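Reopening this one. Same input as before:
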Amino acid sequence: MIQRRDMLFADGTANTGAPDLCHSAARVVLRDEYSYKASRRVPQWLVHARKPLGLLSQVWFGWRWRVRFLRWMGVHIEGAYIGRDCLFDQEVPELITVEPDVTMSSRIIVVAHDSQRHVVGEVRICRGAFIGAGAIILPGVCIGERAVVAAGAVVTRSVPPGETVAGVPAVPLRRKTSEGIS
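Same output, byte for byte:
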């Protein structure tokens, strides 16, 4: 179990409780990489044995097989479309969650750890989101329900539900409401 003192928000302040990332633009929780890796229940041999599955998920024909390879690798994924040549974090894939009805175009990079800053963070892509080709999603990010990430965007912060983001770093363009686009 990860101790409370190891949990920090992206801005360095202490955690006061787990935010509901998919339904708000809450601050994300980043954890110390070393304490997380020491506390996880995945044996070290399995960490190295599942890396070839990541390669197969990038190049295999048929998106259903790509989803199977990612699931076997440790990514929590169900009922999503994954395009070709997408790269999912191979060090801590258990921190990546892709909910149903998500569409991910080709050449997307999803990272759940940052070895430069020695942090890991959960990455969650919520129901009905669309991720454009070549987008990069960094640790501790949640893409909200029905949110759209434009092609080539670098997502450094959580995206609220129904919002469209683009750019490097990704900034909001517009928000989808139940009546239409605002």
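So the earlier flakiness isn't reproducible anymore. For the record, The chain has one domain: 4-172.
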